[in-house]
Structure formats: C-alpha cells, structure tokens
Amino acid sequence: MKTVGPYDSDKRKLLSALSHGSIFFNALVVSIGVPIAVMLVSDDPVVKENSKEAINFHINVWIWSAIVGFLTFISFGLLGFVLLPLLLVIYCGLAVWAIFHALTQPDTAFRYPFILRLL
Q1: What residues are paired with 3 via a beta bridge?
Q2: Structural domain includes residue 45
Q3: Coil, strand or helix: which one is 72?
Q4: Distances (CA, A) of 111 to 64, 88, 95, 116
Q5: CA–CA separation, 98 vs 112, rounded Å?
Q6: Is 72 within a domain?
Q7: For the chain, does the N or the C end have fewer beta carbons within 10 angstroms?
Q8: Is residue 50 domain-resident?
Q9: Domain range spanning residue 89?
Q10: What is the Cα–Cα distance from 31 to 65, expressed in whole angstroms?
Q11: CA nearest 18: which of 46, 54, 45?
Q12: Contact 50, 12 (CB under 8 A)
C-alpha cells in the first residue's frame, strides 16, 4: 500500500476514478450520486476536488444534452444524426481521459477542459 502524505494512494486512485467513471453508470440522477457520496465521505483533498469536477461534468452533460435534444427536436431529427454521436464521443473521451489521469497521476485533480464549473 502506497501512501501520499497521510493519504492512501490506492484509495485515492480508486475513489477518484470511481467519481469520474460514474458518468458511464447511466444518464439518470443516480450516476451523480456517486461523486456526491465520495465527496461527502472522503477527507482526501484530491479526491474531493475530483468529485467536484465530476459533479460539474455531470451537470454539463445534462445541459448540453438538453440543448442538443432541443436542436434535434426543432430540426425534425436532422441535427441529431450529427450532434448526438459527436456529443457521445466527446463526453466518453473526456471521461476516459479523466479516469486515466486519476489512475496515473493520483496526486493532482483532473480538470475537464471547456466546462462550466458551478461548484
């Protein structure tokens, strides 16, 4: 077991990766509960930062999905053929990048590029 200061490095990796990976659980409110729970139970500052960033990412996914859904609706589905796959690739890619960062660089919190941070 490796420790980083007073914090366990393996536990930090697991909880940070779990927070970022929760986006793959489902698109409902349940998936945002994972980083909220991790943020509430962990005392590790890096894990808390990763959890906050994952919560912000969830909120951004919901906002952009609503915008794309609206644009798809008003264009009779035509924009959905282009925007929905693009949105999925971008968000899945960002989440995989965040998980990789959490596992390979456990001492720093991951920051998603180009997202609105409410927390």
Answers
A1: 8
A2: yes
A3: helix
A4: 18, 19, 11, 11
A5: 8
A6: yes
A7: N
A8: yes
A9: 3-104
A10: 15
A11: 54
A12: no
Q: Can you list the alpha helix ranges (DSSP code H) found in 22-117?
A: 30-41, 45-74, 80-104
Torsion sign across C-alpha atoms 58, 60, 62, 65: negative
Q: How confident is the model at residue 54 (pLDDT cuts 50, 70, 90)?
A: very high
d(CA 65, CA 87): 8
Cα 30 off chain centre by: 13
70 within a domain of the structure (yes/no): yes
Per-residue pLDDT tens over the stretch 73-86: 898 888 888 888 99
Please list the residues that pair with 4 across neighbouring strands.
7
Q: What is the pLDDT of residue 28?
A: 63
Q: How many CA atoms lie within 13 A of 3 on its CB side?
A: 3
Instruction: Quote the CA–CA distance of 18 and 35 in Å, as a whole number.
Output: 8
Determine the residue type at 103.
L
Query: To 5 degrees, how large is the angle CA 71–CA 91–CA 79?
Result: 20
